[in-house]
Amino acid sequence: MDLALLARVQHFPVRHHSPRTTAVLLKWLERVKPAVVLVEGPCDATALVDVLCDAQTRPPVAILGYRTDGTPSSSLWPFAAYSPEYQALKWARANGARVEFIDIPVGVALAVDRQAPGLGVETEAQAPVPDEAMPLTEAFARSQGHRSFEEFWEASFEAPDWSPEQFRPVLTAWAEVVNAGPRQAYHRQRDAFMARKVLEVVGSGVAPEKVAVVAGAAHTAAFLAGDVDPEEEAKLPEAGPCAVTVIPYSFPRLAEQLGYGAGNRAPHFYQKAHEANCDFRRATLEVLLDFAAHLRMRGFSASLSDVLEAYRLAVTLSDLREKSAPGLDELREATVATLCRGDATHVDGFLWKSVIGHEVGQVASRIGQNSLQAEFWREVGERRLPRTDSPETFTLRLNNPVEVGSSVFLHRLRVAGIPYASLSGTGSSRKQGAEGEAGGYAALTRVREAWQAQWTPSTDVALVEKIVLGDSLEGVTTRVLQERLTQAKTTAEAADVLLESVITGCSQTVAQALTACDAHAATDADLPSLASAARALSGLMAYGTSRAHSDVGDEAVAALGEKTFNRALLRVREASACAPEAVPPVLDALRTLQEVALSQPRADKAAWFAEARGLMESHAVHPATSGLATGLLYLARELPEADVALEVGRRLSAAVEPSDAAAYLEGFLQVNALVLVKSRDVVKALDDFLTRVEPERFRQTLPILRRALGALGATERRYLMENVMGVRQLKDKGRAVKAVLEEKDKATLKDLSADLGKALDDLDDLL
Q1: What are the pLDDT digits (tens) for 523-535?
Q2: What's the CA gap between 222 and 210, in Å, rounded?
Q3: What share of the chain is helix, strand, coil (3-state, %, to 5)?
Q4: pLDDT single digits (tens) 437-472
Q5: Is the dihedral of CA 52, 55, 56, 58 positive or negative?
Q6: Are the C-beta atoms of residues 223 and 214 closer than 8 Å to each other?
């Protein structure tokens, strides 16, 4: 490798996303008039230069490289309109110069172990860390009187009106300082690769003076110093199978790349500076005008005189700090002091978002979107869904085919793992048991859905990567659900896939999931799994399978639902004879079976009630399941109140272990505590039990009792105390008790009556 020849090539050091670098670069290119422009970027993306420079393409955009072997791996090379690399491409195309990318190919970049030490994204601002507490760049910035490196860069590089002759050596010298320590191996390997690409162009017959290399300052410093080892290139990994395209990008995503280069923390501000030919004073004034408009829209006072005062303050602050023009720090401080009257809340709350910007780029149609991208953007446009990189909320009413279709589209994206929209609620004040679930049974029963949607570059990245699973969103979702079905080990997991297939309209998977549910249910011994599947099938029986356009028919679903419910009943006794730690899911399963029995006409209610009675009467099962069964039978009006009182009295009698009695009570009160505590006979049995337990046994049983009674709300506690008063023949003081309880004044209650005070003390530890 002829390093001397490499140094003769025309080099221009750049910082990514820097308006000033771009302005100086364009002046330099006009003077040099190169025949070939070589730009840092993946070399296998050179074919996309025409797309990037197309009149229809509107930055921010990004080159996307992704693996094509099904491995989820991708990388992005973003460009803003003020990115020097982007403007170099545009200049070359406009002036008839040959232009190429010269960095390592996408397949190699994706094959690099990014988790290895020191292989993060390279920035020319990175440097050896002399002090664990502060990087060199930050330390240098503060030594110059700046509060951050970003402020230092704006004041020293962005704001001054540099000439190419001044800017190039200063930026190169800065790169040499901050990269004085040993460079990371990966970046030295890139140096060697790019140097070879440059020399190949020179070797093809182009004079070195007619070759312009536009690369990061760190690379340029290495090229000019001859600090390139050709043997390093051989250490790069083999390229993996990949493809490359161009996708839209956005200012919010650009702003997240802090440390990747200048001009990121407020892309919209830098865009304005770029459009004003790096007149940062004008950019400051334009942003202040935007701020005033945002404030007025929210009902705040912000006049033109306020804007002018803020502008004068920003300029004054920059002069006092010996800056050429205001930067973001002066803009913020002037806004807070004038427009916001000293209150920074508005700046942090909504004003600063306009400095970052919400712009989403556009890619020329000639690039050709893959089928998933085309379908996504077509659906978003036709359904009038959000297409900006800022969250927007909307509600779908699932009572018409159009909005049901939008719901199916959004659920397909959710299941396929394409980031775009998330369910934020049902759009109704009525609470549901599984309201927080995005899919499954909860989605099947909703009449409204509230969504929050936001396009991000990750959306298009995922749409590109998922093409290996299918050429349509339905095909991709079907493939994902089929894989989940293959991995399903229980009836419940297969039923979950069935419900998701219905919600996403994947009819092919519906039939497969029904078959899988039947197969799993035949051998599944897990009651919670069978109960969950029974509820899922019951939901399909009640709400139909129209969303999935299933060919299997409702009768097939109903038949399997009946069979699964009956199989679950066969597991009730065995599952209820469980250890304490296994009780909670069993109790949930029993409540689910009751729900199905009462709501589904084709469910065998008589068989369920027989099993519930068996649990209620059995001493071989866990007492909590007996208590729950008692409460469920009472609520279903299958057990008269007198019988309930007798059963509770029997379970809470002196012959029963206090811990078993407490466990029974815990299950009993889980059903509907308000209905149960309103029963005088039930409360009497409870009161007799509590007053009869010996102190030592009471202390041992207290944790279970507290858990059982701790969930009682204010209304339940009031009824409970009123009935305790009645049981203890203290009715005449019941009204006073009620008033005191509402005031939560225990001391007043004790003063009112020693008898009432004793009654409250009996329940104090429990309530």
Answers
A1: 899 999 999 999 9
A2: 20
A3: 60, 10, 30
A4: 788 888 877 888 999 999 988 898 889 888 868 878
A5: positive
A6: no
